[in-house]
Amino acid sequence: MSEIELGITADMHVHLRDGKMMELIAPTVREGGISVAYIMPNLVPPITTIDRVVEYKQQLENLSPKTTFLMSFYLSPELTPELINEAASKGAIQGVKCYPAGVTTNSAHGVDPNDFTKFYPVFEAMEKNNLVLNLHGEKPAKKDDEEINILNAEPLFLPILEKLHSDFPNLKIILEHCTSKQAVEMIEKLNSGYKPGDKVNVAGTITAHHLSLTIDNWAGNPINYCKPVAKFPQDKKYLIEAVTSGKPYFFFGSDSAPHPIEGKARHTGVCAGIYTQKYAISYLAEVFEKKDKLDQLKKFVSDFGLEFYDVDTSKLKNSDKCWLVKRKFNVPEIIGNKEITVVPFKAGDELDWQIEWR
Ligand code: DOR
Ligand code: ZN
Fold it and tell me: Where on the tree of life does the source sit, at the highest rank (predicted)?
């Protein structure tokens, strides 16, 4: 097979930033083979108002008119049930992203996930409005805490997910960027009663980079450093099984997170985030082909994400279909312009599959 139709593709976890970085990166969503993108709100300051989210969406559409952008709020004390109701009724947002304070880039305004009860009225409003709660699943360490570290923070977060799902069984919840065997097993467990045709309420997104990285690839290479960090070969195996399984509760969220190259080389600590947007589908195709599962790729990058978010495909900005074409190319060493340089994932490597819009 040298050509595969992937249909209307969706990447349900994308960082596009603002300012000059946004101008550089927003057009690369389509270049990477993605039609529908769910946009993260962790700007500075974070997105918590209807005016700002509407303005941001318009800026993105101006830069990339053929991409359909789904938008989110940043979970914070500013959000009220009334604001959620109004934002939902205007179609301004499709979900709310929760960042535990301090665990990753621009999470300083985040929340304490050990006690979500103060947000329960907001979650009730979200449930009523069919909005998605996107969880960054890492338990934050308290000062001088010796129990929590970057390798166990995700497994330690999973009981929090389990409790939220049991308190809000009808709230759509996503554990974003699953990186561990335990995370995959938890999503399986919470869907253990699933039968074909059922509506999925709790799902996991999985990135492209966590399908090829392990701890050895980022310890010593800040370009491959992201949060949650890539774990062990055994974890990667579980992630690859999950994405190729054809189970509707695992779908694509790239967590493509560009940083200027200077942010990857700072003596005060490097920025977490890997930029994959421009070659998103090509990276995935490598992994699926190696498993002889290219026939499962469309479900992972199209059907399951669109279904979970109830995307009405008759209302997209563009109805072009993404095609995967077997044609080798090399990932450039850098992308950018005079002002910004970003190093893409697998810079310099040869990949086998390109995308075309038809
Ligand atoms: O590696 C990451 N980078 N993980 C996140 O959760 C945030 C992201 C970013 O915004 O750079
Ligand atoms: Zn992210």
Answer: Eukaryota
Domains, the chain, with CATH or none? 3-357 (3.20.20.140)
Is the CB of 14 within 6 Å of ligand 1?
A: no
pLDDT surpasses 80 at 42: yes
> Confidence class of residue 146 from pLDDT cuts 50, 70 and 90?
confident
CA-106 nearest atom, ligand 1: 10
pTM exceeds 0.85, yes or no: yes
CA-nearest of 5, 11, 9 to 252 is 11
Q: Is the pLDDT of residue 1 over 80?
A: no
Cα of 227 to ligand 1 centre, how many Å?
6
Ligand 1 and 15: CB distance under 6 A: yes
Nearest protein Cα to ligand 1, atom 8: 273
Evaluate: CB of 105 within 6 angstroms of ligand 1. yes
Q: Are 71 and 56 in contact (CB under 8 A)?
A: yes
90: phi then psi, degrees, rounded to nearest 5: -85, -5
- Mark out the alpha helices in the chain (DSSP H runs): 19-25, 28-31, 50-63, 81-89, 120-128, 153-167, 181-190, 215-218, 233-243, 280-290, 297-298, 304-308
Residue nearest to atom 3 of ligand 1 (CA): 273
Q: What is the rounded distance in angstroms from the CA atom of residue 181 to the CA atom of residue 154? A: 10
Ligand nearest to the CA of 103: 1
Per the structure block, which two tokens stand in for 278?
């421009």
